TrEMBL record:
Residues 517-632 form the GH3 C-terminal domain. The gene is GHDC. This is GH3 domain containing. It comes from Oncorhynchus kisutch (Coho salmon). Residues 423-497 form the GH3 middle domain. The chain crosses the membrane at residues 17-37.
Length: 643
């Protein structure tokens, strides 16, 4: 087999890179199999010129590998696989970035091509025939023929797909039936296809990695990444289609697991708590970690909260070279993991010293060569990003790479070094329309949508998308603000979810507005630090909330204070009045009662998170805290935790 691989190099063209890559790969196989002397003898028949070129290329490649920062205790084969993976993705990133830049120069044409591609592919489905997709030749014909839709439009159609009926909405069988996170209402079940995943990788992951390496050159290394993600639970539809979250999982990333500090067997552990412990254990073992990565900043924040609670147990495991006996692990998984543990009292002593110095700035002390934290920290995750930067991750750059949802990739952040989180819409991912904020409650939204080239800077819109997986003119519920243009393409900031708007009298206080007011109020509460928060409208709480006038119940978890005075609590109401003239007017008239601010016990939101995930069957990879509670039992739970 090795000799056949060597012989095939001449057929692969004159690319020195390909020949050198093959030679090094072959050598890594030889070394890994322990048959070096016998197999190296097979290299002798190679033509001398090819041999010289190959050896010269090997020297150049090895010099490049040697010059990069590497993790500790790496095998040659793992270094080589990571090196070539980085090179391939780097090449793809440059290529896709070039395509994206070209697309932004002619937005109308690119968007129309994207739409017509979707319609042609699904023209032969039941749905495509109903709306005669095959006869649609341009955007205007599509918008005239097809209504703006919500999930109710698709519910029965998705049920038919789940039961096994073919060619209902899309031409192919979906990979999974993807459950939304349910932050603004009940979870919806959407289709996810191969095209969706391919677009996310090429237009999202590859482009963002290119942007990351341009902004943070040190990240182009051979250091390992600590990726905090979990194996979600899937159930099966009647037709055997998996039902669960639509996010990267260990199974879908199995070919990349050697790039991470966590060994592959750890991802077979069903418990989130035990998997997180293993993530932390193997990350702490490696002082040369290069990146901390997760889908959302909240996951990173909860990981460091757990580290603060369990660091002594983790240090003891590293000292003794074991995996904690407290963890519930299958015997085979435990044996495999413990096979990768060796007693390391020196590292344990270092870690103990770092932890005893406190947790402010702990990340830089634990991993001095860490380049960045890679996680979405916009929208509902904004407060977690801020808390991480203020406490655990002082001085570490953050990169929020994507704006994405279960529906697919929406935008990419081409400006990693900027604190402001803005995203360039991806014109070949979805066909996008924009419903002006003032028209959100119109009975005929079809008449009000705008195209990419028609939106205006400074205005806010709800996204209406046509994607690769069977949604057509679909109201996502995301409100975005156009903050600029990159060539002709809009650049947006996420504002809020429609279902996460506070409104007891039609005043409409958005998540971004409320959070701004809350942060200003907390800055006037001496010593207080925000840990988490959410709100509820009095109507869902019934008699438990007290008072007859409609009002907001606000639940906050704080550090640094034991209680709040009535004056401090009222400060939040004043701050919201300053930001919302309509709210202030209703408060002045007495139509809205004073806000009730409830301080909850430490850990209350961590427990609430578990309840929410259990109820909605949401994976830790995709969970987002609900900022406006729509279920009475969640509000009652927090009422029971008030101080």
């Amino acid at each position: 087999m090795i000799y056949e691989l060597i012989s095939s190099m001449a057929i692969l063209g004159r690319s020195k890179f390909i020949r050198c890559a093959l030679v090094i790969t072959i050598l890594s196989i030889i070394i890994a199999t322990g048959q070096s002397l016998e197999l190296l003898g097979m290299l002798r028949p190679l033509p001398s010129v090819l041999g010289v070129l190959s050896l010269g290329g090997m020297a150049l490649l090895w010099r490049d590998i040697s010059s990069k920062v590497k993790g500790e205790n790496r095998t040659l084969s793992s270094l080589l696989s990571q090196y070539f993976a980085v090179k391939v993705v780097g090449w793809l990133g440059k290529r896709q970035r070039g395509k994206l830049e070209a697309d932004t120069l002619n937005i109308r044409q690119v968007q129309e091509e994207t739409l017509l591609k979707r319609l042609r592919k699904n023209a032969d489905t039941c749905y495509g025939k109903q709306y005669d997709f095959s006869s649609i030749k341009d955007c205007e014909a599509f918008r005239t023929r097809h209504p703006v839709t919500t999930y109710e439009h698709y519910r029965e159609l998705v049920t038919r797909v789940a039961a096994g009926e073919e060619k209902v909405l899309i031409a192919e069988k979906p990979l999974i039936l993807a459950m939304t996170s349910g932050t603004s209402g009940a979870s919806a079940m959407l289709l996810s296809t191969k095209d969706t995943n391919t677009e996310f990788f090429l237009q999202g992951v590859a482009v963002c990695l290119d942007a990351m390496r341009r902004a943070f050159p040190a990240s182009d290394s051979l250091q390992r990444t600590t990726k905090l993600f979990y194996s979600p639970t899937f159930r099966q539809s009647e037709a055997g289609i998996p039902i669960g979250p639509n996010s990267s999982t260990p199974a879908s990333s199995r070919h990349m697991l050697n790039l991470y500090t966590t060994p592959a067997p750890a991802f077979q552990v069903p418990s989130e708590r035990d998997t997180l412990y293993l993530h932390l254990l193997f990350a702490l073992k490696d002082p040369s970690v290069g990146t901390l990565e997760s889908n959302f900043a909240s996951t990173v924040f909860y990981a460091f909260s757990a580290l603060q609670e369990r660091w002594q147990e983790l240090v003891e495991d590293i000292k003794l070279g074991r995996v904690s006996p407290v963890l519930t692990l299958e015997p085979g998984v435990r044996a495999s993991l413990e096979g990768q543990m060796k007693p390391d009292p020196e590292r344990a002593t270092q870690l103990r010293t770092h932890f005893q110095q406190g947790f402010v700035g702990i990340v830089r002390r634990l991993w001095p060569q860490l380049n960045l934290v890679l996680a979405v920290d916009s929208g509902s995750n904004q407060i977690y990003g801020e808390m991480l930067r203020e406490r655990y991750c002082q001085g570490i750059p953050f990169y929020s790479p994507f704006y994405a949802a279960t529906e697919g990739l929406i935008g990419v952040n081409l400006w990693p070094e900027e604190e402001r989180r803005r995203y360039l819409l991806c014109p070949r991912s979805m066909f996008c329309e924009f419903l002006p904020e003032a028209s959100l409650d119109q009975e005929t939204p079809e008449k009000h949508t705008l195209l990419m080239e028609e939106v205006q800077e400074g205005h806010s819109y709800e996204l209406v998308v046509t994607n690769a997986s069977g949604l057509f003119r679909y109201r996502m519920g995301d409100i975005v603000k156009v903050v600029g243009f990159h060539n002709q393409c809009p650049v947006v900031e996420f504002q809020y979810r429609r279902g996460q708007m506070l409104s007891v009298r039609g005043e409409k206080v958005s998540e971004v507005m409320f959070l701004g007011a809350l942060k200003r109020a907390i800055s006037q509460w001496p010593g207080a630090q925000l840990v988490d928060y959410c709100c509820a409208e009095s109507a869902i709480m019934g008699e438990s909330c007290g008072g007859s006038d409609p009002h907001y119940q606000v639940f906050v978890e704080l550090k640094g204070v034991r209680n709040l005075t009535e004056e401090q609590r009222y400060k939040l109401d004043q701050c919201v009045q300053e930001d919302s003239a309509v709210y202030k007017s209703f408060r002045f008239k007495g139509s809205i009662g004073p806000m009730r601010v409830q301080m909850v016990a430490e850990g209350a939101f961590k427990e609430l998170r578990k309840q929410m995930m259990a109820f909605s069957n949401t994976s830790p990879n995709t969970f987002k805290m609900h900022r406006v509670l729509r279920r009475k039992e969640y509000a009652d739970f927090l009422l029971g935790k008030t101080i």
